[in-house]
């Protein structure tokens, strides 16, 4: 079994789903891909319940009014949730001017090194440190991508500022890729900012020219830069109520975060990012998450999750805000156990419903009122009735002395409870469930499945099949007595 750790790699990878539509705060996904979880870890395959829902009072965050620091300036970004990670789009612009963008005083000022007669051809994005080629159709051993006419010159500058040949942000001058070609090509190492600006013009000012560049990697031309992973460090967001400012201080791919339960990583899909987030302002917090109740638990990271949860555990869809859930709280736990709302695509569906039902189960919120009736760390085993199942039924039943079937769950709490759980439950009232009534011999006299669906009957189920067929439950669990 792996020990818990927090790793901070530089970028986020992709694994098994499809590209996103960027027209909404959360990209709309194509058909969902449900992945059966493998939680067999050599013992009983159990997980643990917890009392916290979000794990923070600052978990509802607005998409709007987000900003990033770029060259000492706070600039607005368009924020969206793509699968399980935040993505920010920063609009690019030409920052300032330079002598090369002015007209030339004399036609004798020629060549790529001159300081006049050029124009901004466009801006591009790339992966910092990576090498790529900007080509314009030179005919050498075969025509390269792109095109040109006349004898254009090209200069590549780091970032969004135009440059002169001896400026700090100068990267490279385009040169013909073979002796007979007049179309320039440049081999570029992507700058740390991931953005570059291309200047171009005629070799001799005033003569006709045209230049179309193709980048071997990244995008050119483009009007925005897409930022994710470590690129979001320094991102500031408003809480949904507008009262608090939050800032991302680190980012990590969840496939690189080791956990104690199987399969050993937080989320092996590669599509989930975890963040460390602080609050800034009048009452700053170095981490927005509450104290981790797990013994020896590390400082909490947060996972972004579609939808909003109120203090009563009720969930609503939202296009204006999303949830940040601390990884020791049950919204994050249920996500980690495989119920990722983004698997449904753009619209909430069965996986989202299962995630919501799981949050009731993971807190033992029997009444569906936001009240937890468990202790942090109580072992449970869970499964579901989805097709195919995300968590299949336990292959080997746990001995009766260890765990018992507890309940079937729906989005509004427990759909039904087992005889064992009814007898051990200390709650006195429930919104969604009627309490069993016992005769002098201890027999339940108002069991729904015995007396029929009469008003006030007690919903009792001792198997997942009963919970599913009689009460419409979606998620099921066995639990250890606490």
TrEMBL record:
What species is this protein from?
Corallococcus soli
Q: Which Pfam families match?
A: ADYC
Its name, as the record gives it, is: ADYC domain-containing protein
| Classification via PROSITE patterns | PROKAR_LIPOPROTEIN
The signal peptide, as residue positions, is: 1-19
Domain of life of the organism encoding this protein: Bacteria
Q: Which UniProt keywords apply?
A: Signal
Which ranges carry the ADYC domain? 231-423
Q: Which InterPro entries match?
A: ADYC
């Amino acid at each position: 079994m792996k020990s818990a750790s927090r790793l901070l790699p530089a970028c986020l990878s992709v694994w098994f789903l499809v590209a996103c539509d960027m027209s909404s705060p959360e990209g709309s996904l194509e058909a969902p891909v449900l992945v059966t979880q493998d939680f067999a870890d050599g013992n009983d395959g159990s997980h643990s319940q917890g009392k916290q829902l979000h794990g923070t009072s600052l978990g509802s965050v607005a998409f709007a009014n987000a900003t990033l620091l770029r060259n000492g300036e706070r600039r607005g970004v368009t924020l969206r949730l793509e699968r399980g990670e935040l993505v920010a789009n920063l609009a690019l612009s030409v920052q300032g001017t330079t002598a090369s963008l002015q007209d030339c005083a004399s036609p004798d000022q020629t060549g790529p090194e001159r300081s006049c007669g050029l124009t901004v051809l466009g801006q591009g994005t790339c992966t910092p440190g990576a090498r790529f080629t900007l080509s314009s159709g030179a005919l050498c051993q075969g025509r390269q991508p792109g095109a040109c006419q006349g004898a254009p010159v090209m200069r590549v500058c780091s970032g969004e500022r135009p440059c002169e040949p001896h400026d700090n942000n100068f990267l490279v001058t385009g040169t013909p890729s073979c002796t007979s070609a007049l179309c320039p090509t440049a081999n570029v190492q992507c700058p740390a900012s991931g953005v570059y600006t291309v200047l171009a013009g005629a070799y001799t000012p005033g003569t006709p020219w045209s230049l179309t560049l193709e980048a071997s990697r990244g995008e050119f031309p483009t009007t925005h830069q897409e930022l994710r992973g470590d690129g979001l460090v320094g991102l500031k967001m408003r809480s949904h109520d507008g009262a608090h400012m939050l800032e991302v201080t680190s980012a990590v791919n969840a496939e690189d975060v080791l956990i104690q339960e199987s399969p050993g990583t937080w989320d092996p899909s590669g599509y989930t990012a975890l963040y460390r987030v602080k609050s800034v302002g009048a009452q700053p917090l170095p981490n927005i998450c509450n104290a981790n109740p797990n013994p020896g638990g590390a400082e909490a990271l947060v996972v972004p999750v579609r939808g909003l949860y109120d203090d009563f555990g009720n969930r609503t869809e939202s296009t204006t805000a999303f949830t940040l859930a601390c990884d020791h709280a049950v919204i994050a736990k249920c996500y980690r156990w495989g119920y990722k709302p983004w698997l449904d695509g753009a619209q909430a569906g069965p996986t989202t419903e299962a995630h919501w039902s799981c949050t009731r189960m993971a807190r033992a919120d029997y009444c569906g009122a936001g009240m937890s009736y468990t202790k942090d760390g109580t072992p449970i085993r869970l499964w579901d009735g989805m097709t195919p199942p995300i968590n299949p039924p336990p292959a080997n039943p746990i001995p009766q002395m260890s765990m018992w079937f507890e309940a079937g769950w729906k989005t509004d709490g427990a759909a039904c409870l087992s005889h064992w759980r009814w007898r051990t439950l200390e709650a006195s009232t429930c919104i969604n469930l009627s309490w069993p009534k016992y005769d002098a011999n201890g027999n339940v006299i108002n069991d729904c499945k015995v007396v029929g669906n009469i008003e006030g009957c007690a919903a009792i189920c001792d198997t997942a099949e009963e919970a599913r067929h009689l009460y419409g439950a979606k998620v099921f669990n066995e639990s250890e007595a606490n």
